[in-house]
């Protein structure tokens, strides 16, 4: 049995153990639990459209926190980005979407959603905005109305690593590379 200590002699570890003992017997409602301790929502497989992979993601992200990156087109200052994304957040709030916004660069913002099931509806709203260059959601980049011609690639994924680009450049030079030793000598 643990020794009895005076409460004034408790350190952080003792306080943490005491808190765990108190919480062990508490009846915490399911909605008050942190997200990682909540049981996942049941998925209704009858609503899944096999032709649309987004429908699967929609159902699996329902009730979970999700973040999407939004890029503002043009060359805005951080203050302009703040104002533009604030308008978007206000419009989403008026449409009853719970969205928090964080500015992460002069032209980038993170939109954090409490319920990831609405992410694709919010993405559709954002890409239809004049100053939206692109929206990144679950690794997919969706070009917006404000994207210039160089950026308009339908659903491009994250850029590949530079190693793959270097390998492609070597192969395009016409030099065949393999791991065998050859008798040919190359002069420098």
Automatic annotation (TrEMBL):
GO terms for biological process: protein folding; Wnt signaling pathway. It comes from the Eukaryota. Transmembrane segments: none annotated. The keyword Acyltransferase does not apply. InterPro entries: MESD (IPR019330). It is found in: Endoplasmic reticulum. Its main location: endoplasmic reticulum. Keywords: Chaperone, Endoplasmic reticulum, Signal, Wnt signaling pathway. Residues 23-32 have a biased composition (Acidic residues). The keyword Chaperone applies. Residues 148-188 have a biased composition (Basic and acidic residues). Belongs to the MESD family. This is LRP chaperone MESD. It comes from Nicator chloris.
